Amino acid sequence: MKLVVFVSMYFYINKYFSVAGVKSSHFNHDYSFLFRMFYVAMVFMVARFRFYSAWLAAECSCISLGFGAYAVECKARTGNGPTADANETQYVGEMTFDTVANVDPWNCEFSPTVRMKMRNWNKSVQWWLVTYVHRKFPIKSTR
């Protein structure tokens, strides 16, 4: 459902706020500063919707192929896989695809802090950076 919402919003809003409008020669001369800032913010919103659509389409394809399916009892996380062991008999119950969830658009758009926005933007890359770069960085004062 999220995929349909973001794809339709992308195509609808892109008609009115495209990059071509910013590149036009009269953009800097004919419009006020506030309108230009609003227009550029809308262009970036359209770009984010394009990313959301691509990530959600990739997530849907992974789910339809059965990648990243774990039982709810395994407590799977994005990029990390299952965090708790589960018996073979528990795999017949409810399944979750949290390991392939790469973006949470609603929390990314409406988070009150930049930190929460970044954690919801590209979750698998965030996990990889924390695990393999940030925690292994030699200077402890930067952690």
Structural features:
single chain, 143 residues, mainly alpha, two-stranded antiparallel sheet, 58% helix
Q: Helix count, per DSSP? A: 7
What do the pLDDT scores average to? 82
Q: What's the end-to-end separation, in Å?
A: 38 Å
Question: How many strands?
Answer: 2
Assembly status: single chain
Q: Point out poorly predicted stretches.
A: none
Strand order of the largest sheet: 1-2
What structural class do the secondary elements suggest?
Answer: mainly alpha
Can you summarize the main beta sheet? 2 strands, antiparallel
Strand content: under 5%
Describe what this molecule looks like in 3D.
By secondary structure, the protein is mainly α. It is 58% helix and 3% strand. A two-stranded antiparallel sheet has the order 1-2. The chain is flat and about 65 Å long. The mean pLDDT is 82.
SSE order and pairing:
Elements: H1 2-16, H2 19-23, H3 27-30, H4 33-65, E1 70-71, E2 95-96, H5 105-110, H6 114-121, H7 123-134
Antiparallel strand pairs: 1-2
Short description:
The protein has helices at 2-16, 19-23, 27-30, 33-65, 105-110, 114-121, 123-134; strands at residues 70-71, 95-96. The chain has 143 residues and is mainly alpha-helical.
